[in-house]
Design a protein that fits this description.
The protein is α+β, with helices and mostly antiparallel strands and about 400 residues long. Helix content is about 50%, strand content about 20%. It folds into 3 domains: about 1-145, Beta-Lactamase (2-Layer Sandwich), CATH 3.30.450.20; about 145-225, Orthogonal Bundle (Helix Hairpins), CATH 1.10.287; about 235-390, Histidine kinase-like ATPase, C-terminal domain (Heat Shock Protein 90). It contains 12 helices and 12 strands. Strands 2-1-5-4-3 form a 5-stranded antiparallel beta sheet. The longest helix is centred in the middle third of the chain and has 51 residues, at about 140-190. The two termini are about 50 Å apart.
Length: about 400
């Protein structure tokens, strides 16, 4: 209320009683001090800049959250460039203010003794009358990061427990078959004293098959749990899909499955490891083929959605029930009579290694849709923006 009256008083200052003017100024100062006290009490830091990068407000928490130049401490009246000590933070803020970088929130880690703290810096624009200001917010997310790390460790432990149970289940049958045929081989020796090559081969061939089965389980397990040597380079998702469709066409024809593609004409390059992306898409498609034993249609499409490229793989097969759908990416979960149950676990891992996301929806009797989102690199976003601007 006092601000409005002050504006009115400023217009008619000669006619405004001095006592009333003093009262309004006192109220305005009190109101300003209240807001400052409130902002100083926040755990987040705030630095408000004018158009020339001069600091017009800084909260107390700011200097505690990010390293500043002790000789020229962060304070009102100076430019932000001379107040920030950390080079990475300074370069980032200047790049955003000059328009060279998008105003996306970014995290910075700071070492203090044996401890590390992580700060998230973000921007917002404030408009006051005809003037615009930039509010730089600094937020301590160290505790959030620690909680996420603990949660990931717990999830990893639960996943390893599931995988251990899956391995035990997978190797049980081959080991049982090997034991039975070793017993039969031993019994045959006792009964006959010796065995010819043909008789021995009946037992040894089964042992060979089961050893190969155990080896494949071990290989799949190691592939699922070992860190991936992902080499991300700029590449075309459409090219990977086109090559994969050519490779799959004979199998699709044999299984009476029609593959339809709807690939967006121009897509920016994304950072991918073509080997892993191809294998992941192949795993999804092979699952789709299995879901259409009598034939059907497989649709593969791509499109650009904001800062992401979308890959959509849709079949009109048997579908997946809700209970199975919630477990589909878990290790050793499978609805197939044969298979290790690691195929989609690997797909999930590959997509995450590419900093993307994967989603699946399904309806019994109608089919299943896998959707993969891959981020478009910042350099490609700028190139795309420049092309759209021209």
């Amino acid at each position: 209320m006092s601000t409005k009256l002050l504006k009115k008083a400023a217009v008619n200052i000669e006619q405004f009683p001095l006592s009333e003017l003093k009262k309004l100024i006192a109220e305005s100062i009190k109101e300003s001090d209240t807001y400052r006290t409130l902002l100083d009490g926040l755990s987040d830091g705030h630095v408000v800049l004018a158009g020339d990068h001069r600091i017009v407000f800084v909260s107390k928490a700011t200097a505690r959250l990010i390293p500043t130049d002790r000789r020229n401490r962060i304070r009102e009246g100076i430019r932000i460039e001379s107040a920030i000590f950390d080079k990475d933070v300074k370069d980032y803020i200047i790049a955003v203010l000059s328009g060279k970088e998008r105003a996306d929130a970014r995290d910075f880690a700071f070492q203090s003794g044996d401890s590390t703290s992580v700060m998230r810096i973000s921007f917002s624009t404030l408009s006051v009358g005809d003037e615009s200001f930039v509010d730089i917010m600094v937020r301590d997310i160290t505790e959030e990061i620690n909680k996420e790390t603990k949660l990931r460790r717990s999830e990893s432990l639960a996943s390893m427990t599931t995988m251990a149970a899956g391995i035990a289940h997978e190797i049980k049958n081959p080991l049982a078959a090997m034991k039975i045929h070793l017993q039969l081989l031993r019994k045959a020796f006792r009964n006959k004293g010796k065995l010819g090559e043909e008789d021995a081969d009946r037992y040894l061939s089964v042992l060979d098959e089961e050893i190969d089965h155990l080896n494949s389980i071990a290989v799949d397990f190691l592939f699922a749990v070992r860190p991936m040597n992902v080499e991300l380079t700029l590449g075309s998702v459409n090219s990977v899909i086109e090559d994969l469709v050519v490779f799959l066409s004979p199998e699709a024809k044999d299984k009476k499955i029609e593959i339809k593609t709807e690939l967006e004409g121009y897509l920016p390059s994304v950072e991918i490891d073509q080997r892993y992306i191809r294998q992941s898409l192949l795993n999804i498609v092979e699952n789709a083929f299995s879901a259409m034993p009598g034939g059907g249609t497989l649709r593969i499409s791509t499109k650009l959605d904001g800062d992401f490229e979308i890959i959509r793989i849709e079949d009109n097969g048997t579908g997946i029930d809700d209970e199975s759908l919630s477990k589909i990416f878990e290790p050793y979960f499978t609805t197939k009579a044969s298979g290790t149950g690691l195929g989609l676990t690997v797909v999930y891992k590959v997509v995450k290694e590419h900093h993307g996301d994967i989603f699946v929806t399904s309806e019994m009797g109608k089919g299943t849709v896998f959707t993969i989102k891959l981020p478009v690199p910042r350099s490609q976003r700028k190139a795309l923006e420049s092309k759209e601007g021209n």
